Amino acid sequence: MKKSMYVIVLSVLFLSACKNDKKQAESNSMQPSEMNMEKAEGHEHGDHDHDATMGENSSKEGRKIDATTQKNSATSAIIDSYLQIKNALVKDNKDGAAKGGTMMLTAFADFDMSQLNDTQHKEYMEILEDAKEQAEHIVKSPIDHQREHFENLSVDVNDLIALLGTDKTLYQSKCPMAGEGEGAIWLSEYKEIKNPFFGSKMISCGNVEKQIN
Fold this sequence. Notes:
The protein is mainly alpha-helical. The chain has 7 helices and 3 strands, in the order αααααααβββ.
């Protein structure tokens, strides 16, 4: 009983700390004049098109993929480009993230689909369509929108690994303060929490949910 109460208290304290960090980060990153300007004018990065794109991505939440345990090096180039984006966002590096987006588009273009069976091909094409769209936006967007598209891209890459496998050891982590509802996931090559959704503002917010391989 005491152990259960201890775990609950720690969980509450963790979420509270993340929420406080997020409020402080938002307060520090936007002055009152900037807030008024944003409300009046909206984002400069084509809000209508951006919001429409984000809305279209909700369909991937319904993907039902039976996760494979196959060791597969064929996905490595795609995963490497994803990690390039992730690590750049951790460092608040917009240009580095854009470079990773370009790398991902190349990796998908070079991927050999002839190895896929019919079921895999169907699921892969759905992942490909959405992931390419996210990568294209990451290439051309300001960093706040890069992070929004990275949230969707993380689901796509996670689904790709579930579908086809990987020979890499990865860690699926989750930020309770990113996205909507229950938070957002990301994948990392290391276990240490370095949050790509908030970068230096909330670098340690999140927790490892599982290890892949």
